Amino acid sequence: MSRIVYVNGAYLPEQDAKVSIFDRGFLFSDAVYEVTAVLNGKLLENEGHLSRLMRSCAELQLRLPVTATELENIQNELIALNQLREGALYLQLTRGCSGDREFDYPPAYVTPTLVLFTQSRPVINSVKAQTGISVVSVEDIRWGRRDIKTVGLLAPCMAKEYAHSQGADDAFLVEDGMVTEGSACNAWIVTCAGVLVTRPLSNRILHGITRKSLLLLAKNHGIPFEERAFSLEEVYSASEAFISSATSFIWPVVNIDGKPVGEGVPGPVTQALRKIYIDMALQATA
Ligand code: PDD
Predict the structure, then answer these.
(1) Is the domain of 35 the same as that of 81?
(2) Number of domains, the chain
(3) Of 35, 37, 134, 273, which has the fewest CB atoms closer than 10 Å, so is most exposed?
(4) Catalytic residue positions?
């Protein structure tokens, strides 16, 4: 069934939605985005995603052409039009189109391009949450402002493609021997002492909304955690590893570079934290 998507004020069948070839999102990746989970037909953690969108816009002097309330109305209207119960809502804002290819930012009167579409897929009962995923390590070749959620995603696409060529599901990106994050997710380990470890916030990683909630939930449930960089060797010797994102929530990492992580099956801390997160998510969207 064809989706209804949103483009610059219009709700259209996806095949009728058009953006100019001169759009700066297309020519320069001059655009930011957000992916928000949808459960029970409701947006999950949308406040966090919208405030990160505002931050990305501010860092790039990118103008949002609608108010936050208008944006939320558009999001909810699109979910309703597509009768989306579970999946994700994708939102992209570009610096628009000034009618030619010019590096300079266009004048302020040029309207930014706002596009939204839905993606229907199981989030709670995803297969990978049960089986876990395998990852391979690859060098992190991305730019220096990974805290800004831009659509310049060729490096993660290359990492994922390499992972698939090696028979793995995803990649852990490594810089100076330390894991930064996954191709489109935050990376975590559980040490043999049962401590959760994830990298602290900086320009080197995306400030994950799921990551933030997981740290809060870990705190509330008395699960010990540390925000610090961890090395690839630490993943090799960790008792568990997992990834977090709006699309996966939490997926266990059971194998890295062909070696099992811990017992090579989804670990108890990972599974407990996933359940805690899902309980919170179901309650928030009930
Ligand atoms: N990716 N790190 C990177 C590089 C990401 O692209 C993402 C999200 C995350 C997790 O952030 P959050 O918990 O806010 O989803 C971390 C989205 C899902 C994507 O690009 O599809």
Answers:
(1) yes
(2) 2
(3) 35
(4) 149
- pLDDT value of residue 98: 85
Residues 10, 142, single domain; the answer is: no
Strand order in the sheet with 42-43: 10-13, 4-7, 113-120, 87-94, 31-39, 42-43
Predicted local confidence at residue 195, as pLDDT: 98
Q: Is 190 in the pocket of ligand 1 (CB under 6 A)?
A: no
Domain of residue 234, residue span = 127-284
Asked whether the beta carbons of 164 and 107 are under 8 A apart, the reply is no
Does ligand 1 have an atom closer than 6 angstroms to the CB of 46? no
Bridging pattern class, strands 178-182 and 230-231: antiparallel
Whether 98 and 142 have beta carbons less than 8 Å apart is answered as: no
Per-residue pLDDT tens digits for 183-221: 999 999 999 999 999 999 999 999 999 999 999 999 999
CATH of the domain at 164: 3.20.10.10
pLDDT of 98-127, one tens digit each?
899 999 999 988 999 999 999 999 999 999
Tell whether ligand 1 has an atom less than 6 A from the beta carbon of residue 184: yes
- Are 218 and 175 found together in one domain? yes
Is the pTM value of this prediction over 0.90? yes
The reply to whether 110 and 37 lie within a common domain is yes
CA 278 to chain centroid? 17
Residue closest by Cα to atom 4 of ligand 1: 184
pLDDT, mean over the chain: 97
With tokens 């259209």, the residue in question is 12
- Please give the Cα distance from 127 to 36 (Å, whole number): 20
Q: pLDDT tier at 278 (50, 70, 90 boundaries)?
A: very high
Query: Quick one: which of 191, 234, 181 has its CA closest to 211?
Result: 181
Question: Closest Cα to atom 9, ligand 1: which residue?
Answer: 185
C-alpha 260/C-alpha 254 separation (Å) is: 6
